[in-house]
UniProtKB/TrEMBL annotation:
<dbReference type="InterPro" id="IPR025241">
    <property type="entry name" value="DUF4190"/>
</dbReference>
<keyword id="KW-1133">Transmembrane helix</keyword>
<protein>
    <submittedName>
        <fullName>DUF4190 domain-containing protein</fullName>
    </submittedName>
</protein>
<feature type="transmembrane region" description="Helical">
    <location>
        <begin position="20"/>
        <end position="44"/>
    </location>
</feature>
<dbReference type="InterPro" id="IPR055338">
    <property type="entry name" value="YqfX-like"/>
</dbReference>
<keyword id="KW-0812">Transmembrane</keyword>
<keyword id="KW-0472">Membrane</keyword>
<feature type="domain" description="DUF4190">
    <location>
        <begin position="18"/>
        <end position="77"/>
    </location>
</feature>
<feature type="transmembrane region" description="Helical">
    <location>
        <begin position="65"/>
        <end position="92"/>
    </location>
</feature>
<dbReference type="Pfam" id="PF13828">
    <property type="entry name" value="DUF4190"/>
</dbReference>
């Protein structure tokens, strides 16, 4: 029998939310919106690494930073390939 007012809350996870967000932004940025999500992943990963001693998640934060940098490299490669092939051309009409 439990008494009134007893605390039976589940223990909270010590995973850093910013590290998780950095990793998710880095992974999604590999496929879409890499020019936007790359810097977001880098910033969130850097803040997540600063909070890692207290909250944990240093590995995820580092992976997010690496993926954010990779997102920007992919964007640069795509931009260079586009520029080498004559740039963008929009054909509208029939």
């Amino acid at each position: 029998m439990t008494s009134y007012g007893s605390s039976s809350a589940a223990p909270r996870s010590r995973t850093n939310g910013l590290a998780v967000a950095s990793l998710v932004c880095g992974i999604i940025g590999l496929f879409v919106f890499n020019v936007i999500l790359g810097p977001v992943a880098i910033v969130l990963g850097a803040v997540g690494m600063r909070q890692a001693p207290a909250k944990g998640g240093a590995g995820m934060a580092k992976a997010g930073v690496v993926l954010g940098i990779l997102d920007l490299v992919i964007f640069g490669v795509l931009l260079a390939v586009t520029a080498a092939n004559g740039g963008f051309s929009w054909y509208v009409g029939g």
